[in-house]
């Protein structure tokens, strides 16, 4: 099974409990602020004030705001993908059609993106303009979707009929992510339901193994 989300920056790892707790407070404060205000509107001073630590503590672990952005990305990935399979499994019977499974996945991802629009939009744009950040985003999303797909394949009867090789999952992950982002920011109105439903059918048809 793939390992957990990877970070690209050289982040100091604290070993003492007190240091670990301070770093976790910094990450949580940064994450909540970026969700609320957006990445561009969140400053280092905002983060340390919310975490109730000194500015020196921040620089003990991070070079700048960009450095901690990778930690925020990791938490967002955990929140977005971490309960994806469980949410689908709790909603559908194990004999559900593959298109229904994909449809439920898209709805959950769309809900998360809508809930965190500022973070999602700014990190999406940053992934397009910053090569290193974009590489980490794509790798982390791919790892997460592999983990969640394996859970779904194991639970649903349809699982034994579908492709689960890395290339197929990369293609599916890109389609799902792009449609989620498009649906979140395009104000489609009543066309959104049709877009998600037809994407679900398309992805399901692609995933079925050839007989």
Automatic annotation (TrEMBL):
InterPro entries: Homeodomain-like_sf, HTH-type_Tx_Regulator, HTH_TetR. Keywords: DNA-binding. One of its GO terms (molecular function) is DNA binding. Coiled coil: none annotated. Pfam families: TetR_N. Residues 43-62 bind DNA. Residues 20-80 form the HTH tetR-type domain. This is TetR/AcrR family transcriptional regulator.
């Amino acid at each position: 099974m793939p390992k957990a989300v990877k970070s690209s920056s050289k982040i100091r790892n604290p070993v003492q409990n007190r240091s670990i707790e301070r770093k976790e407070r910094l990450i949580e404060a940064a994450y909540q602020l970026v969700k609320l205000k957006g990445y561009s509107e969140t400053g280092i001073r905002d983060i340390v004030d919310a975490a109730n630590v000194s500015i020196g503590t921040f620089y003990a672990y991070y070079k700048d705001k960009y450095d901690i952005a990778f930690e925020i990305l990791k938490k967002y990935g955990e929140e977005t993908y971490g309960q994806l399979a469980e949410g689908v499994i709790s909603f559908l019977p194990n004999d559900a059609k593959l298109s229904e499974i994909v449809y439920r996945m898209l709805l959950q991802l769309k809900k998360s993106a809508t809930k965190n629009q500022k973070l999602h939009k700014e990190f999406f744009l940053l992934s397009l303009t910053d090569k290193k950040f974009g590489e980490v985003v794509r790798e982390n999303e791919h790892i997460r979707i592999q983990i969640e797909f394996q859970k779904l394949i194991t639970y649903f009867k349809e699982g034994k009929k579908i492709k689960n090789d890395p290339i197929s999952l990369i293609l599916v992950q890109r389609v799902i992510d792009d449609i989620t982002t498009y649906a979140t920011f395009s104000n489609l109105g009543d066309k959104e339901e049709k877009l998600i439903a037809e994407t679900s059918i398309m992805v399901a048809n692609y995933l079925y193994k050839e007989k």
